[in-house]
From TrEMBL:
Keywords: Coiled coil, Signal. It comes from Novosphingobium resinovorum. Residues 1-22 form the signal peptide. Pfam families: Porin_O_P. The keyword Signal applies. The keyword Secreted does not apply. This is Porin. Residues 27-54 form a coiled coil.
Length: 494
């Protein structure tokens, strides 16, 4: 406590003890006392401003601390509490804490780390350009309701997480890159993408990369499109049925070659990550190529071919299909064959034809899969085809990725968060699937009308209205059946 404040306290104590003394000071003495108190308050105000300037300089060393003018005594008293940079009940940081903050800020400045914001999360770059790092995430939530089936067990209303992923990606130097993602959508940890890679240029307009690890298939147009980028709530039956037995992922190697109008890839993998090393893995080889004979800022023609061959090991040779036809989140609504034992391998192939002009896009896909069986039995054959299309009524271009020949994240012209309408897309699709040349054949088709609203490049809402028709000979729901499914989705991709 300062001398002036101590004098004031002593005077008040005497006044309380002897009321007669309270009237002793003259007006000039009281005026002197008030001026002294105001000076003390102004001094305290200057000290607080100095502390605040020091903290600001430590937090942002690249900026000069503002020069704070001393307040006049009569202005200091009413505003002193509102300028505190810390809670009133806490003490300001001491000298040691301020030194630590300065050292930390200096270290950050010395590394010259830069940060940019892209798909909702920051991307960090080292000052020398050697390293980059970016968190990744995907949250996709669905609700689905089915009506019209002759089986009550199919008329369900359900909810589910199509994807709930967290991961990271980064680069080291100009050539090395990596990516890792885990998915928690089924309330269990599932490693999905996990690889390291090397990239380089061969010549102007010609480059390559090689990835090693747990890899996502490069197979068919929508089969090569991530779940966060498909124009419908579920991929086409070509992508979901003309597929290796190990499904969308396998552990192995994938070299890819890129040129100005297309790409080609070759993938050799074993099984998915499963923790089972007691038997040999199945072996799968996949190849795909796409070409854009027409490629301009507003027009693209897409041609693609692909195929795979899979060898199944004894003990891992049970075949069978249980394929989505009217939405993922109705487990009773599938085209099913039941288990088929004695498989020795599978071979599949397909073709893609489509493109876009302005805001209108169309894509057709077809494929066939032969599952080889032992003991001289004929192949179990799967055939599928689909025709899809969309139109952006807001004038945005389709999110076609010419480097990979698949869909990616859209570039929204007028995002909602900038005061625009976002990107609004109307979609339609027809798809057909048939399992044949087995004792339990099945066939079905589905017609879908949809709408997508992209608030910006990484936030979207989807609605799909699906009329489906199935005919199963295996499982609980046999015979012909049809109905309608309405699916809604909200998705965020970082």
């Amino acid at each position: 406590m300062t001398r002036t404040l101590m004098a004031s306290a002593a005077f008040l104590a005497l006044a309380v003890a002897n009321p007669a003394l309270a009237q002793a000071p003259t007006r000039d003495e009281l005026a002197d006392l008030v001026r002294a108190q105001a000076a003390e308050i102004a001094s305290l105000r200057q000290r607080v401003d100095a502390l605040e300037a020091t903290r600001t300089a430590a937090a942002a060393p690249q900026q000069s601390a503002p020069v704070v003018a001393a307040a006049e005594p009569e202005q200091a008293a009413p505003t002193i509490l509102s300028t505190q940079p810390y809670a009133a009940q806490l003490l300001p940081p001491g000298p040691a804490e301020r030194d630590i903050e300065r050292v930390r800020a200096t270290a950050v400045a010395a590394t010259d780390v830069t940060t940019e914001w892209g798909q909702g999360l920051p991307v960090f770059h080292s000052g020398d350009g050697t390293f980059s790092f970016k968190p990744r995430g995907r949250i996709i939530t669905d609700v689905s309701t089915t009506r019209g089936s002759k089986y009550d067990g199919r008329n369900l209303t359900t909810t589910g997480m199509r994807a709930l992923r967290m991961g990271l990606e980064g680069t080291v130097g100009s050539h090395l890159f990596y990516q890792f993602e885990s998915d928690f959508s089924e309330n269990a940890v599932d490693v999905v993408t996990a690889f390291i890679g090397w990239k380089n240029k061969i010549a102007p307009g010609l480059d390559y990369d090689v990835r090693v690890g747990h890899l996502f298939n490069d197979r068919s147009f929508e089969g090569s499109t991530g779940s966060d980028s498909t124009p419908f709530a579920e991929r086409t039956v070509v992508a979901t049925a003309i597929i290796p037995q190990r499904a969308f992922y396998g552990l192995g190697i994938m070299p890819r070659l890129f040129w100005k109008t297309g790409h080609a890839s070759l993938t050799v993998t074993g099984d998915r990550i499963d923790g089972d090393q007691s038997t040999s893995d199945n072996r799968t080889v996949i190849a795909r190529a796409h070409w854009n004979p027409i490629k301009s800022p507003r027009q693209v023609l897409h041609l693609g071919i692909w195929g795979f061959d899979e060898h199944l090991q004894p003990g891992k040779n049970t075949l069978g299909r249980n394929t989505v036809i009217g939405g993922r989140f109705n487990g009773a609504l599938r085209l099913s064959t039941g288990d088929i034992i004695g498989g020795t391998g599978t071979t599949g192939y397909g073709a893609e034809l489509g493109g876009y002009t302005g805001p209108l896009w169309v894509m057709a896909e077809a494929g066939e899969r032969h599952a080889r069986l032992d003991n001289g039995r004929p192949d179990f054959v799967t055939q599928a085809w689909s025709v899809s299309g969309g139109f952006f009524i807001t004038g945005d271009l389709p999110p076609y990725n010419p480097r990979l020949g698949s869909f990616g994240q859209p570039k929204v012209l007028r995002p909602v968060f900038d005061g625009g309408p976002g990107a609004i897309e109307l979609t339609a699709r027809y798809e057909n699937l048939e399992f044949k040349d087995i004792a339990t054949p099945a066939q079905g088709w589905a017609a879908t009308l949809g709408a997508n609203w992209y608030l910006n490049s990484f936030v979207r809402f989807q609605v799909n209205a699906i009329h489906w028709n199935t005919e199963n000979t295996a499982g609980i729901y046999t015979g012909k059946d049809d109905g309608e499914t309405l699916t809604a989705r909200v998705g965020v991709t970082f």
